[in-house]
Design brief:
Elements lengths: L9 E6 L2 E5 L4 E3 L4 E2 L3 E7 L3 E8 L6 E4 L2 E3 L1 H18 L4 E8 L10 H15 L6 H11 L11 E5 L8 E6 L6 E7 L9 H7 L6 H21 L2 H20 L10 H15 L5 E3 L6 E6 L3 H9 L6 E7 L4 E2 L1
Parallel strand pairs: 7-9
Antiparallel strand pairs: 1-6, 1-16, 2-5, 3-4, 5-10, 5-15, 6-9, 7-8, 10-11, 12-14, 12-15, 13-14
Helix pairs in contact: 1-2, 1-3, 2-3, 5-6
Bound molecules: (3R)-3-hydroxy-3-methyl-5-(phosphonooxy)pentanoic acid.
């Protein structure tokens, strides 16, 4: 591991959230967030988290503000846990002030933890004088939120499950310019979700379907990777929807069950399936929440967005195209 001491105390980083095409659901090791299966995603360019970290000798504890609002409790603890790892690596004792802002509406149920922990990892490590490699940064971001490791590299990304902390990290499989896909996010509810993904992962193994889902994952990963590399939308749509259904089948059959869908979620799913049957290249995927990520080649995005806004229960639609890596600003 190469580390250069830059003697910086402040650094600012920018990161994008990501949407998984092959989902991560369940951990082999919850403490290190080593996933039960590998996953594939795309960074969501245009939706940005910008985070400034300042290690300040005058501070008596870590401080966090999110969109200008001071945070305490669980969210501060999770940030401090990542800062502790950085302090350990840099042999640094100082506390930090963390100021994080999202340019996309927060609290609308778009996973912001991925971009948050990717930006935090880069800003904190740079402010501590560490120059981490992409894989090292990805591993650090993973400790904050598993899917955050996929927001570190750019474009289309694969997170190799690995076996331990050293071998579990993400890398690019194609650049953002490789395929002009759009993610049109249909927001159907802005309420905070009842069960967050950290608790959700812990329930995955209680579903009798999880073992079958995991056994078939290598096939779906190969199929999805190939579809992306070939820019084959038809094959892509088939595997992305199947993978989404498999994850939600596991969620619904866990003990206790997790049912994230709302009536409008299903309305969007059915509309998208109809549109595809009628020749429009479009498909969907859904994370641990009710909102629907509707994917299409950007050439069809305007048509997809106007169709989505007509569906009862769709409050708004956000659009994103393939985003680059987490970077310093
Ligand atoms: O990184 P987490 O713990 O928020 O988990 C993300 C889980 C899903 O969004 C449902 C799937 C994924 O691979 O992003």
């Amino acid at each position: 591991m190469e580390c250069y001491h830059l003697y910086m105390t402040t650094a600012t980083a920018q990161a994008f959230p990501n949407i998984a095409f092959i989902k991560y659901w369940g951990n082999r090791d919850a403490h290190f967030r080593i996933p039960s299966n590998a996953s594939i995603s795309m960074n969501l360019g245009g939706l940005e988290t910008r985070t400034q970290v300042t290690f300040d000798p005058a501070l008596k504890n870590d401080q966090l503000t999110l969109n200008g609002k001071p945070q305490s409790g669980k969210s501060l603890e999770r940030v401090s846990a990542v800062l502790d790892l950085v302090r350990q690596m840099a042999a640094l004792q100082r506390f930090a002030r963390v100021e994080s802002n999202n340019n996309f509406p927060t609290g609308v149920g778009i996973a912001s933890s991925a971009s948050a922990f990717a930006a935090l990892s880069l800003a904190a490590s740079a402010a501590a004088g560490l120059a981490l490699s992409e894989a090292e940064l990805s591993r650090l971001a993973r400790r904050g939120s598993g899917s955050a490791c996929r927001s570190v590299p750019g474009g289309f990304v694969e997170w190799q499950a690995g076996e331990d902390d050293l071998t579990s990290y993400a890398f690019s499989i194609a650049s953002p310019g490789h395929w002009d896909l759009s993610d049109c996010i249909a927001i159907v509810s802005q309420a905070p979700k009842p069960t967050g993904s950290t608790e959700g992962h812990a329930l995955a193994a209680s579903s009798p379907l999880q073992a079958a889902r995991l056994a078939d994952t290598p096939r779906r990963l190969d199929f999805c990777r190939r579809a992306i590399l070939d820019r084959d939308f038809e094959a892509f749509a088939e595997v992305v929807e199947q993978d989404c259904h498999l994850m939600h089948a596991v969620m619904i059959t866990s003990t206790p069950p997790l049912l994230y869908w709302q009536p409008a979620t299903l309305a969007v799913m059915q509309a998208v399936m109809d549109w595809r049957k009628n020749g429009l290249p479009v498909c969907y995927t859904i994370d641990a929440g009710p909102n629907v990520h509707v994917l299409c080649p950007t050439a069809s995005a305007a048509q997809v967005i106007s169709g989505l806004t007509l569906i009862t229960g769709v409050e708004k639609v956000l659009a994103a195209r393939p985003g680059g890596p987490t970077h310093l600003v």
